[in-house]
Amino acid sequence: MHAPVADDARLSATERWFATHGLPFFVPAARTQARAALRPRRVVPRLVLVGVATLLVGVGLAWAGSDAALAPAVLLTGGGLAVAAYVVVALGARPIVAWAVGRTLGSFRQLLPTVTRALPLLLVFVTFLFINAEVWQMAASLPTGLLWLTVLLFGAMAVVFLLVRLPEEVGRVDDNVDDTLLLTACRGTPLEGDAARLVADEGADPARHTELGRFERWNLLLVLLVVQGVQVLVVAATIFLFFLVFGVLTMRPEVAEAWTGGPVASVPGLPGLTAELLAVSVFLAAFSGLYFTVVAVTDDTFRGQFFSGVLGELERAIGVRAVYREMLERDADRGGSGAGAG
């Protein structure tokens, strides 16, 4: 008599567990909310409003700075930030970002050795570009808007590359789900006891619930995308700071003037730090971020180091989800409402 109530309590606790582990779309109610937020009548008006607002701001900045490229740069940046904000707030992806960022920064001790392994070779390669006159001429000649657009292009290429390659990683996590994985995955979760009971029950087969739906696959993909994005930003920021310090120490004004073909001016209060040095550092940092993204995903050694821990978390999520779906199915068969039904 009291078993359905207890089951519903465990299902509700499991849904909270999903949310705190960056898996909100594993819960039916969250998927329903996301589908509603993706309806054109909700999305289109907001896109139009953001587009008009960012375009007006961009045109204003372009006119004030006499830099026509600022208009599309502001429009693309504003549009990208608006889409990201809509995904986080309206679609309910905030737990995904919070967990992925928290896990990446929380495991910084494990991240640091891998990054320091990748940085020396990357720095050697990019430093040759930094001491190249043609790079200084190109970067220094770019107005702010075009430099901004260049950084956005590198960022967009990195995101597209990840969106092409990361689904392969997601596709591997549900390939080897068995009873051992189910028991290991559910250990320490609200479904630990249910997993043991279902595995021992010959009439139950929770492992059959490993096929992910569209929203659930996107959930795992977003987790990997945010984790990898934070790592790339750490590397790009490190490269940027390195070249700022390296440039202040080694790049004399007369050399910079000879390479850029014009006078250079230091930033007020910061002798040695010039606008040209900032432009070169930004350009090389963005390029390094793209290069590091490609290497981290394609190189077997780096891919194993970067994704091993996260993929283990995703495999655990698949196991917990399989038991959760089996419990939901049994709850539906009993005619109960279920904590996550719908």
UniProtKB/TrEMBL annotation:
Coiled coil: none annotated. Keywords: Membrane, Transmembrane, Transmembrane helix. It comes from the Bacteria. The chain crosses the membrane at residues 43-64, 70-93, 114-133, 145-164, 218-249, 277-297. The keyword Chloroplast does not apply. This is Integral membrane protein. It comes from Nocardioides imazamoxiresistens.
